[in-house]
Amino acid sequence: MGLVEAIVISIIAASTPLLLAAAGELIVERAGVLNLGVEGMMIMGAACGFAGAYLTGSTFVGALFGVAAGMALSFVFAVLTLGLAVNQVAAGLALTILGIGLSGLIGAGFVGEKIVPAPQLSIPVLTGIPFIGRILFGQNAFIYFSIALVIGIWWFLYRTRAGLILRAVGDSHTSAHALGYPVLKIRLLAVLFGGGCAGLAGAFLPLAYTPFFIPGMTAGRGWIALALVVFSSWLPGRLVAGAYLFGAVSILQLHAQAFGLGIPSQLMTALPYLATVMVLVIISRARGAAGSVAPASLGTVFVPDR
After folding, report:
1. For labelling alongside 115, which of 82, 136, 179, 204 has CA 20 to 30 A away?
2. CB within 8 A of 116, min separation 6: which ones?
3. Over 90: is that where the pLDDT of 128 sits?
4. Consecutive H or E run containing 257
5. Taking the complete model, does pTM exceed 0.85, yes or no?
């Protein structure tokens, strides 16, 4: 039971950055914008988050630094795609390359340094419950926030007028504009929100997952987060299931190596990404007959009438 408990806790921790980044990207894509720069914003969040926590000694300040870094990079993306009507795919890829380069520059002076990781919740009676105590009542604030974030996004999208307007912009920006809604402003706010979530997801890695920073520590998690949005059919509830599924795959491949199953380590390392490709192929084939459920204006540049 102790081993199972440790594995479950590891899966939850590995799934949290995926869930945070994918939740923000879900809002962005619901607004009709395709931002492929999630990986770049995550690694910038990791570098700036660690720098903030190391310099101030506060995990909370580090998290704010990560959010700010993600939002700053997403603002650059918004200026290009919303202000200058640049192709969203090209701008997103450029954003990733920019983020990787800047994070290496910012984090170069912090490589090899360590910080105190985010504290775990400890409730005397509840945390001591066998097996489920640490799983439910012994996690750090990032994990609880990720679940609350998804619940908040669901409520916003399906229980508020603002969420209905955002979905309308993603489905038909021309009609939304004709009704008088500020399409570009709505998309700007969505892009900034997605950038903040990606930055927080990146900050989680050095602040709670591993108490140090190394270049490239996101290791492709941003691309998996992008795939998760498609996997979830742009629905918040499915996003949680998908994030924990891919988190489980990444953790179980590590335990498979530890048990000495004789499977090449290179294949086990590639397993999460192979699973991502397989799931996307299956979903694409299943939706071929039923039609796409993606926002109709996703990735389409909008230029208001002058």
Report:
1. 136
2. 59, 211
3. no
4. helix 236-258
5. yes
274 burial type by CB count under 10 A (0-12 exposed, 13-18 middle, 19+ buried): exposed
120 DSSP β-pair partners: 140
Radius of gyration of the chain (CA): 20
CA of 213: how far to CAs of 123, 148, 284, in Å? 30, 27, 37
Where do the domains of the chain lie? 2-290
Give me 120's structure tokens. Answer: 């775990």
Long-range contacts made by residues 268-277, C-beta under 8 angstroms, separation at least 24?
Answer: 272/224, 272/246, 273/220, 273/223, 273/224, 275/246, 275/249, 276/223, 276/224, 276/227, 276/246
Q: How confident is the model at residue 133 (pLDDT cuts 50, 70, 90)?
A: confident
Burial pattern 167-194, b for ≥16 Cβ within 10 A else e, equals: bbbbbbbeebbeeeeebbebbbbbbbbb
Q: Which residues pair with 212 in a beta bridge?
A: 114
- Indicate the pLDDT class of residue 5, thresholds 50, 70 and 90: confident
Helix (H) or strand (E) segment spanning residue 130? none
Please check the confidence at residue 9 and state whether its pLDDT lies above 70: yes
pLDDT (0 to 100) of residue 55: 95
pLDDT of residue 63: 97
Helices (H) and strands (E) in the chain, counts: 12, 0
User: Which residue bears the tokens 């619940």?
Assistant: 151
